[in-house]
Structures are given as C-alpha cells and as structure tokens.
Protein 1
Amino acid sequence: MQHVEKLDSISYDQFIENYLKPGIPVVFKNASAAWKSNQQFNPDFFRANFGNHKTTYKGKEYSMNEILDITEKSTVDKPAPYPILFEIPLQLPELLPMIDPLHMNYAFPNWFRNKVMPYGKYGNSIHLFIGGPGNQYSLHKDMYHTNAWVTQLYGEKKFVVFPRDQEELLYPSNAGFISPINITKPDYEKYPRYREATPLSIVLKPGETIFIPNGIWHTTVAASHNISLIFDQLNGYNFKAWKQDMYDYAKRRGTMAAIAKYSLAQTLGSLCKLGEMTKAF
C-alpha cells in the first residue's frame, strides 16, 4: 500500500490548493493544538467527566464507563460492538468548549456551524467514536458528499482511503455509498476488479487529524483501544454535490419531494453563503 502524507504544518491557503480542491486526503500532526484545552482526552478523562453519560447501540443503552470497559477488552477474535458513538452536541455538550475552535484553523468555512443548519440532518454531525482491537468500519464514502475530519484523541487507528477514480473497483451498493468488500479479507472471486484498486493507508496517532475529502472511499481498522472525534464539513467547494444528494435521496419518495428538498438545500446554502460573507458564524 502507498501512504497518506503527514504534515507538521501548512498554511491554510496551501491546504486549500494542494488538498481540498484536488480532493486529496492528508494528515495534520498538530492541528488539534489549536483547541483551547490542552487536556489529555484519554479513558481516565472520559470516566471522570462523562462516566455516567449514556448512549444506545442497536437498541441497548450503555454508559460511557461501560463502553470504555467493553472496548478496552476488545480483541480480534471477540471484538466489542461497533460503532458505539456519542452525539457530542446532544450527549456530551460540556466537551464542546474544550475543542474550540473545532475547525482547528483549517476546517472552515463550515456551513454546518451556521444556526440555520439543523444538527443531525443532511450530514451535519459531531461524533465521539470509541472502539478497540477487532473493530472495523464498513468501506464507504460519506453521504451528502461532506468532508470528514477525524482527530485521534487516544490510541491508534488505521485509515485506508481510495483515490476518487477507483469507485468502480469497489462495487458500490446501498445507494452508492457502501461497498461490500472487506479490505482485510477481500473476496477476489466475488469482486475481481478489486485487485486493481490501490488503497492508501495511514495509522492515525493521538493528536493527529486526518482530512478525508468528499467522495473519497475510506474505512478504518482499530490498531488499539482508541477514541476519535469526527465532524463533517460543508461549504462552497462541496455544496453542489451536497445539494444533488439532497435531491437524489428525496427522489425515492417522489419527484415533488425531491424538488422540495432541493429547494430547501438551495435556501440553506444561500443563507450560509451570506453568513460566510458577513462572518455571521
């Protein structure tokens, strides 16, 4: 496998030209140092501050303490349930001031931070993921063509990404956003074209942040007990694709529903663009 580039530092303009516009993933070694808190976001921190906070996975409720216990004991042979996650603004809001500025001086403008954008809809999310050895995410590209930013808070996680021109080699299904291929044990007889794919891999270490551009297929494999913070980004660079997804997903309910959702997307985008111009968010 080839590797994703890791950067000690880069200007915002260089990031836009060299990575955002051409759609190339990249890892920032120290971007999260921009956060106001220099707290070590390890299991002890989450036990002490959020131990009794709860979330659900497949209909079952888990506390933060329970999740940390389960994932700490996870093995390749007996993996913990995954993905168990927290919606940070709704379930762990006290964490938000500690990770301000969320954009780390790179992930802006982000129209999802505009108050007109409903949280939890249309790709707008800020998640805390907790996992352990044996945990692997499905191979996918993010719905609504959002840009993804993942900061490793604790432990290590391997990311595998694919260049945009290789989508046809990944056998997209489920509206074109999920691949049935298990990258650790690919079935070449069933998916022969996957032999031609050239995945790029990188191990994300604590404090590092990976930028995954919209439309990029990717997956993760846990290298250890780990905690990650993930948020999505929308702005003028991916708005057109986001707006088209809004239409396409609604089209399953009929043309009128699709037109209505497209109109909503256009309105939200116009308001966000105005907010960007006036620095309202």
Note: The longest strand covers residues 147-154.
Protein 2
Amino acid sequence: MAKVIRETQDLTYLNWSHVRNSSGTAGTYLKSSSIIGGHKKYYKLSNFDLEKGIVGHECINEIIVDRLLDILGVEHLEYELINADIEIDGNIYNTYLCASYDFKERGESKASLDDFYRLNAQPGESHYDFCIRMGWREYIENMLVIDYLILNRDRHGANIEVLRNARAHTVRVAPLFDHGLSLLCSCSSDDDAKKFDIMGDKQCNNFIGSRSTFENLSLLSTKGKTLKGILEAKHKEEIFKDLEGVLSDFFIDTIWNMIYGRYKVYENL
C-alpha cells in the first residue's frame, strides 16, 4: 500500500523546476529529484500559485489512485505521500508532496508514446490500433477503464511512455503513472465538491480513443471483465487510510462515491 508520511520532513534542500500543466488548465506544477542510495527519486507538488502557494491536491490523488490500482491488479508507478517543508524562491511552505523512484530498468531508454507512434505507425493506423498491433491490448484496456473510473483529464501521448532496451531488443510500455489531474482536482473546497457531477462525462485529453472516457469503454474487448481485481465497498478504508485530515471527510466520501459509482457502471457493461 502506498505510504503516507504525516510527520513533517525537511526537504528544503530540493530545487524545484516549473512545468506548465499540459492539459491547458491553469496552474504550475513543480518537480524535483534527488539521489538516494544510488537511486534517483522524483518529487512533485500539487498546483502551485505564486501568490497563494500550494493550492491543489493532485499529489493526494496520486496516492488514492496508487492504492486503487493495487486493488484492481493494474501495474503502476508506486508513490508515497510526504508531509514536508520545502523552499521555493526563498519562501518556506508546508505541504504534502508525492515521491517515486525511476521505473526504468538498467539499459532502458524512454520515449513518449506519441513520439514512438509517429516513428513506427503504419499509414492511417489509429493510436488504438497501433497499440493493439504492438501487443499492448491488456495494458491499453486497463488504462481506459482506470481513466474512466477516476475521470483522468490528462492522458495525453507523453503521459504514456515506451521503454526500449536496444541491446536486449526489448520494447515495453511503462507502468501507468501521473494521475494527479483526476477525481476532484478542479474542486478547491467542499462547496465546489458538492456541485461536481461525479458521474459526469467530461471532455478529457486522451491520446487513445475519443475525448470521452465513457465512450472509450466501447473499445474494450471484454466488457466489465477487463480488470483482474474486484473493487468492493470494504476497500474504502484501505484506499483512504491515513488520509483523514489530509482531505476533508466530505472530499473522502465524495471521491469514494465517484470511484465506486463509476466502477459499478463499468462492472455492468
């Protein structure tokens, strides 16, 4: 289970770089990295505002989705959520951030799926058909289901990566990652969450299929049976363990109702 470190850590030594949100929504997302025990560790913050500081909760979404994917048996990048003091432009902020280790194996290089498709697709071949030809049906169909369950707004072609080992002549898709822009990411308060349609079909930035995560379920070869794991009501406690006080009780209940309600739609396809 994804770990939550609630005791404040001193991470003021990290240097943060600005990365504009590629989905087109307002906000700046800051990233950093360090070397721990010879391994590279990556850190990222929720939405950062120069005047208000860290105002988003995207990093918490990463932990929620991490745990959901564990339950559903989907390979993914593993995150931990850390309560930390950080420094940005001379100012100290206390926030929750998420951290992960590099998923590349020795000898592998990575490329975005959109670049890999551009170089290797056959004339007129769709993004979906290309992935099926490459032997990635299970991966892609799992991804389409997950993106529907969490209403992932940002599955563009650079948020799916291909890992290549030229010496070993292997090509694989990287574990699923980057789920911050999902769930209630557009809600900054309980009042916002009350107005949010948790079952709504919103326009999303999908590299595979259409801009509708619900319509993309029509691409599944096995309706309602794509995932290995089964989500049950009892899993709410596991998914939100140690997040009490990090998110409001209303947010927790609303996010759970969203995930479980959408799961029931998928299950009954």
Note: The first strand starts at residue 4 and ends at 10.
Protein 3
Amino acid sequence: MNFHRKPATFVSQVSIKVENIERSIDFYEQVIGFKVWKKTDRQALFTADGQTVLLSVEQPENVIPKQGRTTGLYHFAILLPTRADLGRVFAHLLRIGYPLQGGADHWVSEAIYLADPDGNGIELYADKPSSTWRWANEEVAMSTEPLDVKGLLAEGKEEAWHGLPRGTLIGHIHLHVSELRQAEQFYTKGLGFDVVNRYGGQALFLSTGKYHHHIGLNTWNGVGAPMPPANSVGLESFTLMLPDEAAKEKVAAGLREVGASVKEENGVLMTWDPSGNRILLQIST
C-alpha cells in the first residue's frame, strides 16, 4: 500500500524559516539534492521531481536564530523510494564530509539524521517492506538499533548520486510539543489520526492507514515548553493532504469540537495545534 496518497491523510509539504536564504538554497541543492522550483529574494520552493513542491524555505524580516527549549520542529523526514537511494545519499554525505547526527535501524525503516545550517532537523530515510512491520494491539513495533552502514552503502554503490530521485516524498514530521495529552486529543479527535506507538510518557507516533507514523510528537524540550517567537528560525507550517471534501468537513468539525481555531482561505483550512504548530489542510488531487 502507498501510505502517502488517498485515502490516507499525510504530510505533503513542510515550510521552514532560516537566517540566510542563499545559504539555505546552497545547502538544500548541493547537500540534500533538491531542485529549486521557484525563488524570490526571501523564499525558495524545492522539488524532487520538478513538479511537486515538498519544501518551502523563507527568511523572515528581523529573523533571529533557532530558540532552544521551545515547541516546533524536531525534524522533518524525507522519504526516499528505495534503500539503494538512501545508500547513495548517505555515500554523498560522507564524501562531502557534511556532519551527521546519527543513523538508526528503526525496524520499520532505516534513517540518517542531520541538521541544516540553521539547526532545523532533517531525517533521510527509506522504509522497510510493510509486510515485515510487527503490529500488536494496534501498535507497531519500532526501535533504535545500529544502522547497517556497510550494507546500506553497498546497496547504493551501483549508481552515482544525482540528487533526490523522482518519487521522493515528505514521509513524516516530528514535533516538539508542550504537553502530550492535549496534543494527542488534537491529532486524534481533531485531525483523525490513530496512535500507533507510545514511547513512554515522552513521545507518541500517529498515522492513518496503518503507516508506522506520519506524525511524531515529543516533550523532550520540556513539559510546558513555550512557543518560539514568530521571527525565529524553525517551523513555519506543514501541510496535510486530506482524501476528499467529506474528510475535510469531518476534520473541520473535529477540530472545532476539541476547541481548535480553524480558518479557511481559498479552499485551504488553517489550524494550530495546542503548542502553536501551524497546519494547513488541503484535499488530495
């Protein structure tokens, strides 16, 4: 099953704020492998296939550096089509000497972690076959085990790296929140996600369609963490794609039921989770 098309609800695009747009364009082109789809003096839109925008990067006026111990972006995750594609980008990062924050075998996927020049977290990953994922009592088993570095590099060595391949997607987003109970209610009762894994009392993972997770939430920046200033480096918003108009109406009603603010502009719903993370909701085409 494809977990990033209807009838699933999934993350389709992430928008982040940076201090220096030209530095960020260079990073996301040369290090990550995106193509610039459109740019202005303060914003750049990035694509992998030349058609679909996956990432928006903007430099706010009077921008300030990323603020610690606040809510917002933990990382956004770029899903590569195959393990070989992940191996190729891994080899590229090692070749250019870009600093990595780690790598892991999560049982459901293999992942590499790094940050952009502003400290915005990034995960590059490839899923393992969903038939190998282990489910029990509606929860999927996930772990953090050592990455098979040799095997991953060997998998990708047949071809040279030429940037992100067609078929690359935003696989999920992982957020810092101030409190898990309210966040869980917002994402489940409001947005219609299912909790598929709990990591003690500090993190939980949610999805639709039995994906391992489209959304991750944690309180690792502290329970009660404040929102960052609007002009701070970090998350601007992320976009969720809904399957149809009926789902959009159901989500709008669910959000209002849990007390969330909902606005609509040009057919796009806008809301904020209890920690101030801004979410756009659109219908899949």
Note: Helices lie at 21-32, 83-96, 149-156, 180-190, 245-257.
Protein 4
Amino acid sequence: NVFVVSLALADLVVALYPYPLILVALFHNGWSLGETHCKASGFVMGLSVIGSIFNITAIAINRYCYVCHSFAYNKVYSWWNTMLYVCLIWVLTVVATVPNFFVGSLKYDHRIYSCTFTQTASSCYTITVVVIHFILPITIVSFCYLRIWILVIRVRKKVKSELKLKLKPSDFRNFLTMFVVFVIFAFCWAPLNLIGLAVAINPSEIAPKIPEWLFVVSYFMAYFNSCLNAIIYGLLNQNFRKEYKQILMSLWTPALFFQNTSKAGTEIQTSKPSPALNNNDQTHTNTL
C-alpha cells in the first residue's frame, strides 16, 4: 500500500504544476512564463516520470518477494524497511533527474507546448535516460512478473492435493492489477523511448526524419499514462471501487465522510504473509 501511495504521488505531481503551465502555453500559443518556470516544470515532470517507473519497479519486486519468497517477506519488508525503500526510490529519482540541469536538456518544445527533456541535447545522456528509465526497469519488472506467473501456473497445475499452501484469490487479484499497470506503462512509454533512442544514435540525420505528429502522439500517449493507473485500480480492484464510490457519496453528503472516517479509525486490519509456495522451500512440494 505504501508503494501504491508513492506511485499515486508520482502520478499526481504533474497535475499540480507542469500541466497548468502547459494550459497557459496553449492559451498564449507559446511559453510566456519565463526561463525559471520552464526549467522547474521540466524538472518536476522528470520527477514524475522517473518516480513512476521506479515505483512500478519497486512494486514488482515487492510482489515477487511476497509471492515467491513469502517466508522472508515480513523480515525484508518490515515497516521501517519499507519506508526506507520508498525514501530510496525518491532519492534515486532526484539523482536521475538533476543531471538535466548540467546538460541543458530542459527546454521548451513548441510542438507539445511544454518545457521537457530534449532528446537531441546530448546523445550519451539520452541513451542513459532510456536505459535507466525504460530498459532496465522493464527488464527487472518482466523478470519479477515472469517468476510470479511461473509459480502461479505450477501451484495450480502440480501442487499436491493434501497441501494447503495456495495463493489467495485476493493476492492474485492484487498481483494482476499491478501487472496490468506495468503492461500499460510499457505500452504507453515504449514509442517515446524508442524515438529517443533512435534520435540519440544519430541526431543530425534521424531527428529531422521523425514526423511531428508521431512525436506529439507518442509524447501525450506517454504522459496520459499518469491518468490511467487510477482507472486500472477501479476496474480490477474491488476495494478501490468501494472507496471511489464512498468518496463520490461523501462529496454529496460530507457528514457521511466524517462518519465513515471515525469508523475506519476503530477497525484495525492485520496483514499476514501470503501462504503462497516458496520456491526456496523444496521440502514441502515437488513443484519447483
């Protein structure tokens, strides 16, 4: 839950500062807010983008440990360790974004009416960004979810009937939700990253050949991803649907909101590690 909140924060950041400035640029048909706001909005947008993929990667690792190494999960993901991991995610996000100021890659792009990362500023830095922001996280997340899928398939097909160790339906639904979040992220961000990688290889020749419409579509497709996560949660997770409904009802009846909040404070839910099969515990099953 802490990682999901951190991911939501990364998605929300762009709506609080960069997007309103983009609207101003649209109304004025150009950037009129000065260089400081341009650099700042580009930096915040970078924090949101890199923070999102780092949080998605952390969630995948968390799900991998929870399902495939459940007996060690509580030790690895204690409350303080989890908060430390979240802080580390944002420290790495800032470290990955700050170099933009040194290579001069945060500039206004008239095609998208926003100050953002310029792919032609530095070929080496663009390739580094694509590797750190896209290729490496996608590889890690793919590995984690692949191992989870393999375990789920083995549990369903080969586990002995006398064993009670099964993946709970709620655990599987949570895993499926985050897996869909990852797939949609990869789909939305792949075009822009592939364009950036192609431009970085030979900026002078390839950059002029990229159609303007293709870049604009890939750009807004990538940043539209920040709006999709909440929709995915609502479609695939019953708890989110219930809370969405409660929030909407509370907007009409504020008294109901405070009443439900007071009730929630008296209800304490405990979470236990998933009884999923642990691939390190071969004494309990012959499936791994």
Note: The first strand starts at residue 106 and ends at 109.
